[in-house]
Amino acid sequence: MSRARSLARERAMQALYQWQMTGQDLSDIEQQFISGQEMKGVDKEYFKELLHQVPRHIAQFDEICGELLSRPIEQVDPVERAILRIGLYELKQRIDIPYRVVINEAVELAKGYGAEAGHKFINGTLDKAAKSLREVEMKAAGRK
After folding, report:
1. Would you say the pTM of this structure is higher than 0.85?
2. Are 89 and 50 in contact (CB under 8 A)?
3. pLDDT of 144
4. How far apart (Å, rounded) are the C-alpha atoms in residues 117 and 102?
5. Residue 115: per-residue pLDDT
6. Where are the domains of the chain?
7. Which CATH architecture has domain 2-140?
8. For 30-57, what is the mean pLDDT?
């Protein structure tokens, strides 16, 4: 299941990137991915959840980023912006997924698709976000 989830995150990041760059309707993007992209082994339900729920909460996630970043979210590389938004969605809305898994998955996406040091940026930003969004979980794990 975890590989299927990882693939769902990867496809969702690609689809959200497309949405950010084109403003295309999410349902159209979903159909393009489901019918045209390599979706074998992908948790399709999780892909759909991320694709539709991340934009639904985008103002909230961008507000969180505004508190964590030294620059406006619009100035963040579009790939890294999509990865950050997925990570924030998972930290905030999917407490069933451990924060370490959320951060690790985002870092791996950034290593594969982001700028050269993008994974460090993603790691640092989501770690800061987890300190407030997952405070109890981090304390239980011995992190402050």
Report:
1. yes
2. yes
3. 61
4. 19
5. 87
6. 2-140
7. Orthogonal Bundle (1.10)
8. 93
